[in-house]
Amino acid sequence: MMPLMTLVRLKLRTMVRRPVLLVFCLISPVLMSMLAGSTLERNDLSVVRGAYVDLAENEASGDLIRLLASSRLRWKALTEEEASRAVATGTVDGVVVIPPLYGEMTAPESDRENPFAAVFLPGKNAIASDLVSESFKICALTLSREAILIDDLMALPGGASVSREAMRAGLRESSEVVRERGARLKLDIHGLPSETRTEIVPIPDFAVEILFLSIFSLLSSLMLSDAATQQRMRSIRGGFARDYLSSLLAMTIAGAIQLALMAGLTRLLIPGISRPPVYWPVMAVFFLLMLAFGQLVSLIHSEQRFVPGSLILFISALLGGTFIKLPSAAVEKVGQYTPHGWAFASMSGMETTLPTAAAAAIAAGLLVLAYFLQNRSRYLAG
Q1: What is each CA distance from 373 to 233, 251, 297, 338, 364, in whole angstroms?
Q2: What distance in Å separates the CA atoms of residue 294 and residue 150, rounded to the nearest whole number?
Q3: pLDDT tens readout for residues 191-234
Q4: d(Cα 382, Cα 364) in Å, to the nearest integer?
């Protein structure tokens, strides 16, 4: 055991002598996550700022304002003069101008073409502005459907004898009764976090970490797979097995430290970052797959192996959707059968052909295969 641990320490020292590799694989993913936009202070639905100008001040506009207030966006009332200034200075992300006679179904025919329409003044942030607009549209649609339902009820026999206000009050009272009895129009949206914070633009930060963990594992595997060292170790009984195992242990320790620091720095600099529950087991298995890949690439001569190894890694990252974003269908049909795609799909909640345990078994099998192939390699044996 002591000779093995000595070899592990020596190999870790060899890796420490290449600080550029460690800095590249540690700092670059954090910087890329920041550049991707996940560090935006306002990348949060709860801080999107909407405003409204109520020119109607009637029952319909009051209902609309109450619905807007129930959303997860921040809404506030403004005057017409304040609205233009707020949009110009960027203090709000959008303003809904509620026109006079808003929602008045009894208004003159010329004003009834779309009684629930309003004027929208977009803000400077296009994404946040769209969210404010969509929030208003959903609320207006609710009121519009209620108005249509009231029209249908009033068209029934005997409905004309009931005033519109009385019909609306009766409809809402009846709706509340059936709601108390358990009636629900349930809408399940899968994939949303349980926290109150919800990102405007969900960024799969783990895609960057998958990419750089694979680069680190490949470069460290090639760094420690030195033919001259293996030839000297073969002259000792059991030396090759110790050398192979010590390389794997050293890379595993270094990879765990690199992954922990990379994830920790990202969490420190981006407090709102979120990772799926399967992050650590999937990343552990992915790292094993990359270690096996590095050991297989080590079978190629040291002067020729970097280019094909990097090319295969690039193709896997490209098809897996970690280098550039691909449609989910492409990842599910093709990408998941690459190591990068499997890790990305597993952490994205997609259905994968290989469960985590099966992928771990394949990784272990490839490491054993690489051991036997290296043991019989003429190039490594000298």
Answers
A1: 16, 19, 11, 22, 14
A2: 69
A3: 544 444 444 444 445 788 888 888 888 888 888 877 777 677 77
A4: 26
8 Å CB contact between 202 and 272: no
CA distance 306 to 279: 29
- Cα–Cα dist 55/118, whole Å: 10
**201 is written with which tokens?**
């633009």
Full 3-state SS string of the chain: CHHHHHHHHHHHHHHHCCHHHHHHHHHHHHHHHHHHHHCCCCCCHHHCEEEEEECCCCHHHHHHHHHHHCCCCEEEECCHHHHHHHHHHCCCCEEEEECCCCCCCCCCHHHCCCCCCCEEEECCCHHHHHHHHHHHHHHHHHHHHHHHHHHHHHCCCCHHHCCHHHHHHHHHHHHHHHHHCCCCCCCCCCCCCCCCCCCCCCCCHHHHHHHHHHHHHHHHHHHHCCHHHHHHHHCCCCHHHHHHHHHHHHHHHHHHHHHHHHHHHHHHHCCCCCCCCCHHHHHHHHHHHHHHHHHHHCCCCCCCCHHHHHHHHHHHHHHHCCCCCCCHHHHHHCHHHCHHHHHHHHHCCCCCCCCHHHHHHHHHHHHHHHHHHHHCCHHHHC
Which tokens hold the place of 119?
């004027």
Alpha-carbon distance 136 to 152, whole Å? 24
Summarize pLDDT for 317-343 with one digit per residue, the tens: 999 988 777 888 888 889 999 999 999
Q: Say how far apart CA 367 and CA 345 lie, in whole Å.
A: 23
pLDDT tens digits for range 253-263: 988 888 887 77
Question: How confident is the model at residue 379, as a pLDDT?
Answer: 67
pTM across the whole model: 0.58
Quick count: other Cβ atoms within 10 Å of Cβ 243?
Answer: 23
List the single range of 73-82, 226-235, 253-262, 358-367 with lowest mean pLDDT.
226-235
Q: At 50, list the tokens.
A: 């909407």
Give the span between the Cα atoms of 35 and 51, in whole angstroms: 30
Which residue's structure tokens are 């129930």? 70
The pLDDT mean for the chain works out to 80
What does the alpha-carbon distance between residue 137 and residue 116 come to, in Å, rounded to a whole number?
A: 9
Place of tokens 């976090």: 193
Closest CA relative to residue 62, chosen from 86, 98, 38: 98
The pLDDT of 107-133, averaged and rounded, is: 77
